[in-house]
Amino acid sequence: IDNQGNKREIDVDPDVKTITRILGVYSDYVYVVGGPEWDLETYDISHNKILWKSRIGRNVGNVFYDPLKNIAYLTKGDLVRAYDNASGKILWEKYGVYGEGTLYNSGVLYVPVPTNIEHAFRLLAIDGASQEALWEKDISHPADIKASSATVIDNLLIYRGYGMIAVDKSNGDLVWTTPSVGEEFYDMPANFNGIIYAKGHGTGAVYAISMKDGTIVGHVRLEDIGGTVISGRIFTLKDGIVFNSINEIVVYESK
């Protein structure tokens, strides 16, 4: 669909099946999972063709693409797997990890691993192409933080639950902790002008959290909407943020 809303359909695969989820969208490639066997399908959208398929099953996370090495990284369940993006050949795979909490940034995979330490997970930074371990740290956190709920914001790895923690992606040091707000930060947060905005699962309130030290600098609760709009993410605009309530699209502009 182009900027004017015009739709164009191109048949690139005669084996038609239901697409369950889009796992990754990049300038030249789209990764989807679908069909009764949950197959990963890779489409070259610059040439309108399907490149390869791989049977992966359920509990799928995301696909990250490295354009410099032409490698696609699949995360799912307790697995991280690297594919040659041109052929679909499996280059390597690592089991026994929190696959759905794995993050990728600039050639590096940040992989959480279970540990016997209470309220902690071990975090590995791995060069995706060479599999070289760059650093490894045990990350202690409040009991209600989830290693599987994660995102990269600037130089921080953000893990969330009923609160948040921020880890320095260069060395694995814990930078700050945001204590519980009494409801879960379920969906992916957004960053605007040094402030992280996250929506609470229980009430739908939007919280503003300082990227510098993790303190909550403010929040807005328009209505008790909770899970009704839990799938409604916060997005950044050129000069503010936008999110949805039950009946409205809400825009906050910076001053």
Describe the protein's architecture and organization.
It is a single chain. With 255 residues, the protein is mainly beta. The chain has strands at 19-25, 29-34, 39-44, 49-55, 60-66, 71-76, 79-84, 90-95, 103-105, 108-113, 120-127, 133-140, 145-153, 156-161, 164-168, 174-178, 190-192, 195-199, 206-210, 216-220, 235-236, 240-244, 249-253. The protein is built from no helices and 23 strands. A hairpin with a 2-residue loop joins strand 13 and strand 14. The protein is globular and about 50 Å long.
Query: Total strand count, please?
Result: 23
Strand proportion: over 45%
Derived from helix and strand composition plus strand pairing, the structural class reads mainly beta
Strand order, sheet with most strands: 1-2-3-4
Give the number of helices: 0
Q: Categorize the overall geometry.
A: globular
Terminal CA distance = 34 Å
Q: What is the rounded Rg?
A: 19 Å
What summary fits the major beta sheet?
4 strands, antiparallel
Order of helices and strands: EEEEEEEEEEEEEEEEEEEEEEE
Q: Which stretches are poorly predicted, pLDDT < 50 over at least 5 residues?
A: none
Helix and strand layout, with pairings?
Layout: E1 19-25, E2 29-34, E3 39-44, E4 49-55, E5 60-66, E6 71-76, E7 79-84, E8 90-95, E9 103-105, E10 108-113, E11 120-127, E12 133-140, E13 145-153, E14 156-161, E15 164-168, E16 174-178, E17 190-192, E18 195-199, E19 206-210, E20 216-220, E21 235-236, E22 240-244, E23 249-253
Antiparallel strand pairs: 1-2, 2-3, 3-4, 5-6, 6-7, 7-8, 9-10, 10-11, 11-12, 13-14, 14-15, 15-16, 17-18, 18-19, 19-20, 21-22, 22-23
